[in-house]
């Protein structure tokens, strides 16, 4: 067995698309992975890797960062397709990363009210509104060197 051999790359084709879960909680990772692509303000094509996680969860990795999770209702279908491939295989799904603009900004949005979302599957003409119960993880508190920003401001 060679240590330098590349892992096999496999593709999963989705008939219909869906939003990934936990975009507000993982917004920092998504924006960091986007890099300069976020300045265009439009959808960016993405080749997302699906990885098996704990307790049957499926994590989504894009540009070497975890950017979301497969929603519970879609896990059985994707897990069934993942079972066909070797555990060492890199399993990819085509998708896109698109901005969702809110006015006024919601929790997790940037200063302009933009929240970047991960879409798995073929890109639609217009992205649908994600389900309300899609995101369960809390948005992390803003920190500077690990110190919450709320502690740095004097109480008003």
* Major beta-sheet overview: 7 strands, mixed
Which percent range fits the helix content?
10-25%
Mean pLDDT, all residues:
89
**What is the string of SSEs from the N terminus onward?**
EEHEEEHEEEEH
Termini Cα gap: 64 Å
| Count of folded domains | 1
Shape: globular
> What are the segments in which pLDDT stays under 50 over at least 5 consecutive residues?
none
Number of strands: 9
Structural class: alpha+beta
Residue fraction in strands: 25-35%
Query: What does the radius of gyration come to?
Result: 17 Å
Q: What quaternary form is this?
A: single chain
Q: If helices are DSSP runs of H or I spanning 4 or more residues, what is the number of helices?
A: 3
Protein name: HIRAN domain-containing protein
Secondary structure layout:
Layout: E1 9-12, E2 18-19, H1 27-34, E3 44-52, E4 58-62, E5 65-69, H2 75-82, E6 90-101, E7 114-120, E8 143-144, E9 147-148, H3 149-152
Parallel strand pairs: 1-6
Antiparallel strand pairs: 2-7, 3-4, 3-6, 4-5, 6-7, 8-9
Describe this structure in words.
By secondary structure, this protein is α+β, with helices and mostly antiparallel strands. It has one domain (9-131, 138-152). The protein is built from three helices and nine strands, in the order E-E-H-E-E-E-H-E-E-E-E-H. The chain has helices at 27-34, 75-82, 149-152, and strands spanning 9-12, 18-19, 44-52, 58-62, 65-69, 90-101, 114-120, 143-144, 147-148. The strands form two sheets. Strands 1, 2, 3, 4, 5, 6 and 7 form a seven-stranded mixed β-sheet that branches. A hairpin with a 2-residue loop joins strand 8 (143-144) and strand 9 (147-148). The mean pLDDT is 89.
């Amino acid at each position: 067995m060679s240590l330098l051999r590349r892992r096999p790359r496999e593709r999963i084709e989705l008939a219909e698309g869906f939003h990934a879960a936990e975009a507000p909680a993982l917004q920092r990772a998504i924006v960091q992975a986007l890099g300069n692509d976020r300045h265009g303000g439009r959808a960016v094509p993405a080749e997302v890797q699906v990885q098996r996680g704990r307790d049957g969860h499926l994590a989504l990795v894009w540009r070497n960062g975890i950017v979301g999770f497969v929603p519970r209702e879609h896990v059985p279908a994707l897990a069934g397709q993942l079972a066909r491939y070797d555990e060492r295989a890199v399993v990819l799904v085509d998708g896109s990363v698109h901005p969702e603009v809110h006015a006024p900004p919601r929790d997790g949005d940037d200063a302009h009210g933009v929240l970047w979302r991960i879409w798995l599957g073929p890109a639609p003409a217009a992205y649908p509104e994600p389900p309300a119960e899609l995101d369960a993880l809390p948005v992390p508190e803003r920190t500077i060197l690990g110190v919450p920003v709320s502690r740095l401001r004097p109480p008003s």
